[in-house]
Each structure stands twice: as structure tokens, then as C-alpha cells.
Amino acid sequence: MSAPITVHVDPRLGAVLPAGAVRLVAAAPAVLLDPSLPEPVAARFAAELGAVPVPDEGSAPAGAVVLVAARDPQAPAGVELLEAVAVMDRLRSPGGCPWDAEQTHESLLRYLVEETYELYDALAAGDVAASREELGDVLLQVLFHSRVAAEGEGYDIDAVAAELVAKLVGRHPHVFADAETVVTASDQDRRWEELKATEKQRDSVLDGVAQAQPAAALLAKYVSRVRRAGVPDDVLAALAATDSEVARAVVAAAGPGGDPEGELREAAVAFATRVRALEAATGGSSRDVEFWRRAAQQAGLVK
Predict the structure, then answer these.
(1) Which SS3 state, helix, strand or coil, does residue 32 take?
(2) What gap in Å lies between CA 301 and CA 292, rounded to an integer?
(3) Given 219, 231, 248, 297, which residue has the most CB atoms within 10 angstroms?
(4) 199 CB-contact burial (10 Å; exposed 0-12 / middle 13-18 / buried 19+)
(5) Contact 7, 68 (CB under 8 A)
(6) Is 186 in contact with 194 (CB distance < 8 Å)?
């Protein structure tokens, strides 16, 4: 009796046969399920192919195919995202994690903000390992909110991804359709805003700006929107003339290629560095006003 034929199935893709094995499986007298297959995948193959668990050794019919779990090294990019979705579903489903099951959009908001800032820090520091980890934590927030929404809000992670794909394709007609050629990044930036304005049908160039972002970033975004709308610099300066000196500095720093939020962050980091250097030079810290004044005088910061 000939030995069964083994077909490797990547569980990350779900109950999907390799293309080269489809005819082989269809012609097999029996399809057997190896214990290595995850239960949901095995159940799907059982329902769709009539597959059954591997019988005792030596009792499999000649020409039978055994489906065995094995990762495909040539699986398409993004296959691990399917695994991440499956893990999120398991955590949120009955029998999963009680904490995950209790979360709502509102309870998760603080983590979305925290993880975004942690990712910002990792990227700004050029820390590759930390960036990879923090990107995963931000991805978790997308998966989590999408899973919560799937339980009663009319959309899920596939709807989120589909809307993103439609947006990217629609706003890059020069890539995905026969449209005018975009030569430079600035041309694409302008075209993106034009297409977005057509899609959104907004009443103001400032509509749609996230109000929850830090103040410097909020003002910089307003400036960016106004500048893209064609407002000249002298008019822009006049619009900012009645605001504080700090606001005017942010407006000035928000020019093309500017990053006032980044500049303020750099200033904060430099400030913290000077404070710590002052503490190190004096052997410690204190809440005494005169202590700090003497320390600053010794460091030459004040007279």
C-alpha cells in the first residue's frame, strides 16, 4: 500500500490549499487531517472537502492526501496580518480574555494616544527594534477598534482595509489609472488635496482637522490647510497678527517642510538636557529657589 501524499497548508491563510495541490486533492480518494492543523482550519476542510482525521498508521487508503500545517516561506506579504486578526478575534470572543472582552472605543482611547506617542519617540530616536514593536502596538489599536465595531456598528477590519484601499487608489489616479502624470512630491501633495476636497465636499478648508491633537500641531495643520488653499504669506501673517507671540512663531515654523511640533519637542528635549546637566553639576536637585539661582549663576546661565 502506497504511503499517503503530504500537502502542506499554511494555517495563517486559513483553509486555503496551495494552488499546485488543488487538482491532487480533488482527485484523492480521501483527504486526511493531520493533528498539526488548528481546529478552525481543520473544521473548514472537513466541511468543504469531507476531510477526516488521520486514521491509525497503515489504515489510510492508497493515494490519500494528508493536509499538514506548515508555514509557506513564499506566502504573500501581509499574511501575518491575518494571524493578528485571528488572535484579536480569539481574545475578544467567549472563552477569550475577560479584559479584552470588556473594552469599548471609549475605554481604549487613552491607549491609542499613548501608543502613538511611544511610536513617535521610537521613530524619532531611530530605534529600529522599538519602532517595530511600537508599530505593532498601534496596529493592535486598529485591530481592537475594528473588532469592537464588528460587534454592532456595521463594519469590521475588512471594511476598514477596503476603504483604505479605495482611498489610496482613488487619490493616485496617475498610478492606478490613465491620469495626468505627477512629476514631483509637491504636485502629488496638491493633487491629493484636490481629490480629497472633491470626495469630502467640505464647506471650509479647515473642516476635518483633528481637534484632539496637541495645540502646536493643530495650529500648524490649520496653517498647512490655508497655505495649500492658496492663501499668500502676507495674508497668512495678517490672519495670525492678533494671536500670541508663540502662535506667530508656530505659524512661521509651519512653512513648507516645517515641523513646529518637532521643533517644540526638540526645544523641550534641549531644556530637559540643560536641567539635568545643572542637577548633575550641583550634585542633586532641590525645591529651594536660591539653590537653583546659585546653580544657574555657577553654570553661567544667569548673572
Answers:
(1) strand
(2) 11
(3) 219
(4) exposed
(5) yes
(6) no
Q: Which three cell numbers stand for residue 48?
A: 468543504
Q: What is the largest CA-CA distance in the chain?
A: 97
Rounded to the nearest 5°, which phi and psi values hold at 139?
-60, -40
Average pLDDT for the chain: 84
Cell numbers standing for residue 129: 527594534
**What are the domain boundaries of the chain?**
5-69, 79-170, 204-258, 264-298
Residue 254: per-residue pLDDT: 77
Q: Note the CATH architecture for domain 79-170.
A: Orthogonal Bundle (1.10)
- Alpha-carbon gap, residue 172 to 48, rounded angstroms: 40
Quick: pLDDT tens for 95-121. Answer: 999 999 999 999 999 999 899 999 999
